[in-house]
Amino acid sequence: MQRKRTKVRASSPGVETVVVMRLYISGNAPNSMRAIANLEAICQEYLKDAYKLEVVDVFEQPARALADGILVTPSLAKMAPTPVASIVGNLSDRSSVLLALGIDGKDR
Amino acid sequence: MSEPRPAQLQPLPKIPTGIQGFDAVSRGGLPRSRATLVMSGPGSGKTVFSLQTLVNAVRWRRERGIFVAFEESARQIRENAAAFDWGLSGLPESKLFFLDAHLSPTVVQSGHFDLTGMLAILKAKKETMGARWIVFDGIDVLLALLRDPVAEMREIYRVRDWLANNELTAIITAKLDGRAPAVAHYDFMQFMVDCAIRFERRLEHGTSVHRLQMMKYRGSDFAAGEFPLRIGTSGMQVTGPAPAEIKHAASTERVSAGFERLDSMLSGGLFRGSSTLITGAPGTPKTTLAGKFAERACGRGELALFVSFDEGADAIVRNLSSVGIDLKAHVDSGLLRMYSGRTEANSPDEHLMTLESLLREHRPGCMVIDPLSALAKSGSLGAARAVAGRLVDMAKDNGVTVVITSLLAGDSPEAEATELQISTVADTWLHLSYLVRSGERNRALTIVKARGTRHSNQVRELTLSAAGPTLTDVYTLGGEVLMGTSRWEKEREAKVREMQHRADFEHKRRELQFAEGDARARIAALELDLQRKRAELASYSKDNEAHSLSSIERDSELLKLRGADPPAPGATAAVPYPGKPRGANGSGNSGGKKARREARDAT
Predict the structure, then answer these.
(1) Which residues of A touch B116 (CB under 8 A)?
(2) CB spacing of B110 vs A92 below 8 angstroms
């Protein structure tokens, strides 16, 4: 925890560290739509432009989702910086999302 | 249901699961392209049932399937299933695909999710591999994360609709807590699916019993009630319902009950495929008789199965060899299969299933169960009775001639009813008892019953020797049966009497022979005498003739010498030789005599 916090602190003021994420959704299922909205809000608020987000529609790329080990949708995978994390759900619980992504909410 | 089609009027197509006994309970297997719900408590066989069905479908029906593992990781399931002889490791992923739906504990949950993505993935997978089966093992584990009963129900309905649209035969498993679903709102799942099965493992009289029950089966009948099940090395095995109608073929062929004297007591032996009960107190040679029966069967080249409870197979082989019963050779040749079970280790049901699989594997013609009464030691008596009855049934179904021993103290025939009430089912009932008399304990064998067989009503003494068991006629003396040394003494007495009798006879015979010989000798001597007398007589008469001839000649010579006149014809009548001419014939002796006297006087 301690380690995580220092890292984020070091990256937050500048724009050096880019958060790489991938969001798996299933078409326009309500939970998926909500997840996109929730994630966009979080990114705008905390990451500005320091993120890269790829949205994968499982309906369109099921084989890829299977290869990536995706079970339920929506599902968010944080690939960088380490540690990697995965979050399932429509991301409505913002604090747990921030924690998993390694973003300190107070850094706003 | 909303759009009835003619096809729906046809009987529900079913797919056999290949699980021993289950297809009989469900009357054909699981419904094709429908969902089956399997509910059970922990460790009751949900996963085994669903995976075994899937593996059977892949291996024997050449169908393909997907196993979605929510509860354990796919690797764990594969490892667990490696203990079964299914050859799971040899099945390629293209035929049996495991989807690890086990959410890692590091996954963070934030808000609601749904299964649309997973179902989309599964649909794609199903289409690429052409799967016809799908198993959702422990779907409740994932859905419980939603922490919202309404959301959980919505997802389950989503799964059901998905299954209906994809023509998949599905097995969904869920946990049970006691008799109710672990999660109260999962009750509805039973109404949602077309077929529901419940597994239960509980304790009865300190023994674990494992049962299967069909809860519902839309559009089909099924065997109601609980059925014992067992999980062995080939997976799950269910003891299906026994058919209500008994259809055992009755053979008239006789097989040896073990040794000649017993066979002759039973008019030739036991009927093939019949059941025989041997009861007796401890120490009466029940096992020996059973062992002899098995040895005889193997000696004929038949396969035999010797099931013993609470006594090791090696010990039995050793003990029986002391009375001349050699089972070892038959064990080595593979004709005889020995199985020793520990009664307390399993419930009677499980023992029954073990025997069932042994029968299936070894296919014996003759079987021994020694002793069946041991079954009553584990679990309830009611269960043991049911098992004992089914065991006899099972043997008959398979045409196996079975000899069952049962421990039974006491020796009065009226009290000879076994605890397991097997005596009514058995076709032949031999009872072994002790007879204590004059400081001895001897063994007696009685035939209590032998259906369809004229049998001896006599109590026989059973003796054991290095040459094996045999029966001896008993002596009755003053209304009491003599056995052991009393019998031996009696036998000896009889033998002595017999010897005496024989000696007497011999003596008399010789005496008469002598008398006969004597008489013959005397007859011979008399005959000799007779002949001598005859000879004497003959020689005497010859002598006499010669003499009379010569005297006539001499008379005429004398007359000539004296110059006497020839006898005058007139005087012929006066002379004392009227018959002289006849004297030459040897008659007229008197004349001759006179002449001789005269001649003598003359000289």
Answers:
(1) 26-27, 29, 31-32, 58, 73
(2) yes
Q: Of B218, B221, B239, B242, which is closest to residue B230 (Cα–Cα)? A: B239
A55: enclosing H helix or E strand: strand A51-57
Beta carbons of B114 and A72 less than 8 Å apart: yes
**A74 contact residues in B (CB cutoff 8 A):** 113, 117
Chain segment B368-401, per-residue pLDDT in tens? 988 887 777 766 677 777 777 788 888 888 888 9
**CB-CB contact of B44 with B213 (8 Å):** no
Question: Which is nearest to B19 in space by CA: B44, B54, B43?
Answer: B54
Backbone angles phi, psi at B577, to 5 degrees: -120, 50
Give CA angle at A21 (A20, A24), nearest 5°.
Answer: 160
Arithmetic mean of pLDDT, B557-584: 60
| C-alpha closest to that of B87 among B58, B116, B122 | B58
pLDDT computed for residue A2 by the predictor: 39
pLDDT at residue B272 tops 50: yes
pTM for the full predicted model: 0.62
Rounded CA separation B180/B188 (Å): 11
Q: List residues in chain A touching B: CB distance below 8 A.
A: 24-27, 29, 31-32, 34-35, 38, 58-59, 62-63, 65-66, 69-75, 85-94, 96-97, 99-100
The answer to whether the Cβ–Cβ distance between A26 and B117 falls below 8 Å is yes
Q: Mean pLDDT throughout B409-427?
A: 62
Return the exposure string of B11-46: e unless at least 16 CB atoms fall within 10 Å of the residue's CB, then b. ebebbbbbbbbbbbbbebbbbebbbbbbbbbeebbb
Is A34 close to B111, i.e. CB distance below 8 A?
yes
Query: Among B453, B444, B424, B114, which Cα is nearest to B271's?
Result: B453
Q: Which two tokens stand for residue B485?
A: 């040394």
| Residue B447 near residue B430, CB atoms below 8 Å | yes
CA within 13 Å, CB half, B82: 8
The CA distance from A105 to A98, in Å, is 7
CB of B115 within 8 Å of a chain A CB? The answer is yes
Rounded CA separation B393/B89 (Å): 38
Are the C-beta atoms of residues B135 and B173 closer than 8 Å to each other?
yes
Residue of B266, B310, B268 whose CA lies nearest to B287: B310
B103 touches chain A (CB under 8 A): yes
Residues in chain A with CB shorter than 8 Å from the CB of B107 are 86-88
Note whether B172 and B143 are within 8 A (CB): no
Torsion of CA B21, B27, B30, B32, to 10 degrees: 140
**Distances in whole angstroms, Cα of residue B244 to Cα of each of A27, B240, B393:** 56, 12, 11
Give B313-364 pLDDT, tens digit per residue: 888 899 888 888 888 999 999 899 999 888 777 777 778 888 888 888 888 9
Residue with tokens 């036991």: B270
The minimum CA-CA distance between B111 and chain A, rounded to whole Å, is 5
Written as one letter, the residue type at B394 is: M
